[in-house]
Design a protein that fits this description.
This protein is of the alpha+beta class. It has a domain of 113 residues. It contains 12 helices and 10 strands. It has a 5-stranded mixed β-sheet with strand order 3-6-7-8-9. A hairpin with a 2-residue loop joins β6 and β7. The longest helix has 26 residues. Bound molecules: iron/sulfur cluster. The site of iron/sulfur cluster has 11 residues, from α3 and α12.
């Protein structure tokens, strides 16, 4: 049997080939490939096996950078998980009690997850298991993120501004009042069959009302460059495709609650983009072309971005710096 771990280490050190190991596609994968091919290599190839404490430091760092959320991802995920938990809890109760129960459960969920982050940042257990609470900015040593209590206060400030408008959203209020437990689903990732591979999609909280299926996502807006912003139109089109393929329904809504640190919020239905099929095909073909005829990938085939201003936003900048420094000789 092939020693995959040895392949990873050899690839990092000498640029030797990696096994391709099964292809799947997602909007986030497309986005990173366009952002920088080297970042894509780090995320989808080098980080594999980095969970092992005996792995090469570059693979370990890549694994950490792959799993740690940045601040905005943490805010988005925390709000989504807390709304989801509160909704599931509330719709099991009497209709007249639901709104109050939802509010209380939502606030408790946000407080619990924010406290877990503060403790996680203090204990730094995320350095050995990045699936535990932590932040990419703290790992990268960004000065605004070095004091756990201040990070916690910042989270609390964002949520306290986002909550009142969220709780006033007519669509959400109707769902709290009318949904039945069996009409709700929370799925981390939806898997869609596409040609010869799987397309992964994060559609958030999924509600079925009559013949309409709604996905609700939460998006904390930051200062990312355009190339790192999610393509919600594409995600909406893929969600429609998923609902047709797996749920056998034609009507979908893809709703996004956006919020930021400056109290700006919006709750919008995103129309499906027009050419999802073409975009998946073109994008996946570009990625698969990077795999050589022998089924392997080589780090040096994945170019560094030609726009160095992107690097300060890159989630994989520490691994990239290790690879480019004398720590790893090619
Ligand atoms: S730091 Fe820059 S060159 Fe390196 S992977 Fe990131 S974007 Fe690409």
């Amino acid at each position: 049997m092939r020693d995959f771990q040895a392949d990873v280490i050899r690839a990092a050190i000498t640029g030797k080939p990696l096994p391709e190991g099964g292809f799947s596609w997602s909007p986030a994968r497309m986005q990173l490939f366009r952002f920088c091919q080297r970042a894509y290599f780090i995320r989808y190839y080098l980080a594999q096996g980095g969970w092992n404490i005996h792995a090469h430091p570059a693979a370990r760092t890549a694994y950490l950078e792959k799993h740690l959320p940045d601040f905005n991802q943490f805010l988005s995920r925390t709000l989504e998980q807390s709304v989801s938990d509160a909704l599931f809890y509330a719709v099991r109760r009497e209709k007249k009690e639901r709104t109050d129960i939802f509010r209380r459960a939502l606030v408790q969920g946000l407080e619990r997850r924010t406290s877990a982050l503060i403790i996680g940042l203090e204990k730094q257990d995320y350095l050995t298991d990045p699936k535990l609470p932590g932040l990419l900015e703290t790992f990268h040593g960004e000065t605004d993120f070095l004091h756990p209590e201040k990070v916690g206060s910042r989270c609390a400030a964002v949520f306290s501004k986002a909550l009142p408008p969220l709780l006033e959203e007519k669509d959400l209020k109707e769902k709290i009042e009318n949904l039945e437990p069996l009409s709700l689903r929370k799925e981390e990732l939806l898997a869609l069959n596409w040609r010869s591979f799987i397309v992964w999609l994060h559609a958030g909280i999924i509600c079925t009302e009559g013949d309409t299926v709604t996905g609700i996502r939460f998006h904390a807006m930051g200062k990312q460059p355009e190339s790192l912003l999610p393509d919600h139109g594409l995600e909406s089109a893929l969600f429609r495709e998923y609902v047709r393929q797996k749920m056998h329904r034609e009507k979908t809504k893809f709703n996004i609650f956006s919020f930021d640190e400056a109290e700006k919020t919006a709750y919008n239905t995103v129309e499906p983009g027009p050419v999802a099929a073409d975009r998946v095909d073109v994008s996946s073909t570009g990625m698969l072309r990077m795999v050589r005829d022998n089924g392997e990938v080589y780090m040096n085939d994945f170019a560094l971005t030609t726009e160095p201003e992107k690097c300060s936003f890159c989630p994989f900048r520490q691994t990239c710096a290790m690879i480019r420094s004398n720590e790893i000789q090619s």
